[in-house]
Amino acid sequence: MSKEKKILLIIIVNLVIVIAEIIFGYISNSFALIADALHNAGDVLAVIITYIALVLGTKTTTFKQTFGYIKAEMMAAFVNTLFLFITMLFMIYQAIDRFFNPEIIDPIYMIVVGIIAVIANGISAYMLNNIGVSSCASHDHSSHNHEHNHNEEDANIKSAYLHMLSDALISVAVVVAGIFIYFYQIYYIDSIMTILFSVYILFHSYPLLKKSFLSLMDMNIVDISEEELEKIIKEDEKIIEYHDLHISKPSSKYSFISFHIVLINSAITLEEIECITNSIKINLKQKGFNHILIQVDSKNNMKNKTNCIL
Question: If you write DSSP's letter for every residue of 101-166 in order, what string do you get?
Answer without folding.
Answer: S-----HHHHHHHHHHHHHHHHHHHHHHHHHHHHHHHH---GGGT----TT---HHHHHHHHHHHH
